[in-house]
Amino acid sequence: MPLEFLTPTYMVQSIYDLSVPELKAHGITTVLTDLDNTLLAWNNPEGTPELRQWLAELRQGGIELVVISNNTNKRVAKAVAPLQVDYVAWSLKPLPRGIDYVLKKHHLNPHEVIMVGDQLLTDVWAAHLAGVRSVLVKPLIESDMWQSWLNRRIEKQAKKVIFKEHPNLKWEKSLREHTNH
Ligand SMILES: [Mg+2]
Predict the structure, then answer these.
(1) Distance from the CA of 66 to the center of ligand 1, in angstroms?
(2) Which of 23, 40, 82, 166 has fewest C-beta within 10 Å?
(3) Ligand 1 centroid, distance to 112 Cα (angstroms)
(4) In what helix (H) or strand (E) does residue 51 lie, and over which residues does it extend?
């Protein structure tokens, strides 16, 4: 199957759609997430009330959250400070090293972890290489200053191929498997 390494396990509209009961039902104890345009949008660096509510629910439910970002330590530290979330910066996704680091440090089985992100070429690919399930989300805003024009073009073409190959893979409001092959 072409582009399997860029094919997400799940597609949900937004990271906020991942509810604690649903994560638990899927055996997930730890959510790894991209930062830019997945958790936060550059034009709203403080985060939305929706984000704060979601973080509070995860905390109450005992689900761990770790940001895995390709951005610099300075930028990520500043971004997550008001949210009080653990992070790995400069992770060089699609390399799996950021995810591998968290798996090792927290003694996690890959089966209890998901990687959430808005880009196939970094987030989803890194998840594949690390052997964890991936969740593709819609970018919070269309114009992501952290993503290059070329990257966007490649993503678009890759999505065309993947959606054709997996017609059941669609934007959902929950973690649904696309078992159509
Ligand atoms: Mg992103």
Answers:
(1) 14
(2) 82
(3) 22
(4) helix 49-61
How far is the centre of ligand 1, averaged over its atoms, from the C-alpha of 35 (Å)? 6
E strand map for 44-90: 64-68, 86-88
Note down pLDDT in tens along the chain; length 181 residues.
789 999 999 999 999 999 999 999 999 999 999 999 999 988 888 888 999 999 999 999 999 999 999 999 999 999 999 998 999 999 999 999 999 999 999 999 999 999 999 999 999 999 999 999 999 999 998 766 666 788 888 999 999 999 999 999 999 999 987 764 4
* CA 101 to ligand 1 centroid distance, Å: 19
Q: In angstroms, what is the span from residue 95 Cα to ligand 1's centroid?
A: 15
Tokens standing for residue 174: 């929950």
Report which DSSP code applies to 141: S
Q: Could you give the dihedral angle defined by the CA atoms of residues 33, 152, 4 and 103, in that order, rounded to the nearest 10 degrees?
A: -20
**87 C-alpha to center of ligand 1: Å?**
14
What does pTM read for this prediction?
0.94
